[in-house]
Amino acid sequence: NNAVTHRLTVIGTGYLGATHAACMADLGFEVLGLDVDAARIARLAGGDLPFYEPGLPELLRKGLASGRLRFTTSYAEAAEFGDVHFVCVGTPQKAGEYAADMSYVDAAIDALAPLLARPALVVGKSTVPVGTAERLAARLARLAPAGDGAVLAWNPEFLREGFACHDTLHPDRIVVGLPGDAAAAAGAEAALREVYAPMLAGGTPFITADYPTSELVKVSANAFLATKISFINAMAEVCEAAHADVTKLSEALSHDDRIGGKFLGPGLGFGGGCLPKDIRAFMARAGELGADQALTFLREVDEINIRRRIRMVDIARTLLGGSFIGRTVGVLGAAFKPESDDVRDSPALDVAATIHAQGGKVTVYDPQAMANARRAQPSLSFGESALDAARGAHVVLLLTEWAEFREMAPGGLAAAVAERNIVDGRNALDPEVWRAAGWTYRALGRP
Ligand code: UGA
């Protein structure tokens, strides 16, 4: 019975922490979630998830009802309650720099450590620059009254937004960075094997490493994924020049299992709270370590990605005869990807804002991200539906490939628009269907 094995705390209740807390409670652990944001904690304690994540509201409410999942703002309560503390706070990009802002991670350790009077395991899950765990372990040892009894492990998380519960409960692998001291490492490994026993029983690989290797697994995974997306988008640029079709190219490449089809979807490129900031923070950290040459290709990956947004705006402007002034643009999608309400570094919202800045009258609709989009870009107009956003449009842009946009019939939209122009930023529509219905269809990387 997990409940008697370990009591867990989860520090930081964003996408990562809220998901981890609810999933661990679902596995039978007693879990206490902590956040310094009292309003967020009040909502979570009331069963109200502050963001959109399919399946998570149900797990949250189930955990609360069972009594196994509770929330607090008190570090004293967390230190008293838990013997394993997961640190899940954010590490956003610093304003005006590539490096990650470590202040939330540092603050969490500084608040928790002085309260650890008895042996405890602190498990970092946040995405951090390599070298952080070593630094935090020293801080923990210095600040914790338990001394050597307070041990740090590093356990990066690979969940995707939109699939957060599935990815947490069915991870591809569990990676654990352990301290150099053999006894401390053995204790930490044993505790984490117990915590993750249900996954390990299902055959999930459990990989132990030193601290820096475990930290690097996380950022190198995201760097690889970003590189794969920018690779296919670079091919899209060449396809545009050569009048070739990148969607066919991608499909043909995907049948080689050494390449594979995942993250080979050409379009407007990557955004969100992870991939863009992680590759930048990785470059910044490599520079500090004197290994910047190893990662100069990531600068190119970033630039290819940003060029897709510029290209999208150019295609739309060209369709309108060279200017957005006095023209109406319907934008479908604001979230950085479907099944999310997250607009952090969203390619869709970036394109919408750029067209607005160039004089277009832009109306945006997204199935889930409207509130966040309004907050991020208050000067844009927002519609109640796809049809509403397209009303009177001289061009419609599909920028986030929600199912309801993919399945849209050209006939329905035709009645709303002023001109039948559509630019498919995610290669989500069938060009033949739209052209047959009298639309001028344009896409990224396709003739
Ligand atoms: C990403 C990683 O996939 C997770 O494994 C990782 O744990 C997470 O970052 C993190 O570091 O926390 P996430 O940001 O939720 O997850 O989103 P992804 O599903 O990776 O999508 C990222 C972006 O790539 C989206 O904007 C998406 O539209 C774009 N994308 C994805 C493409 O443009 N083409 C593709 O073929 C796939």
Automatic annotation (TrEMBL):
Uppermost EC category: oxidoreductase
UniProt pathway: Nucleotide-sugar biosynthesis; UDP-alpha-D-glucuronate biosynthesis; UDP-alpha-D-glucuronate from UDP-alpha-D-glucose: step 1/1
The protein's Enzyme Commission number: 1.1.1.22
Listed InterPro entries: 6-PGluconate_DH-like_C_sf (IPR008927), NAD(P)-bd_dom_sf (IPR036291), UDP-Glc/GDP-Man (IPR017476), UDP-Glc/GDP-Man_DH_C (IPR014027), UDP-Glc/GDP-Man_DH_C_sf (IPR036220), UDP-Glc/GDP-Man_DH_dimer (IPR014026), UDP-Glc/GDP-Man_DH_N (IPR001732), UDPglc_DH_bac (IPR028357)
Reaction equations catalysed: UDP-alpha-D-glucose + 2 NAD(+) + H2O = UDP-alpha-D-glucuronate + 2 NADH + 3 H(+)
Family affiliation: Belongs to the UDP-glucose/GDP-mannose dehydrogenase family.
Protein name per its UniProtKB record: UDP-glucose 6-dehydrogenase
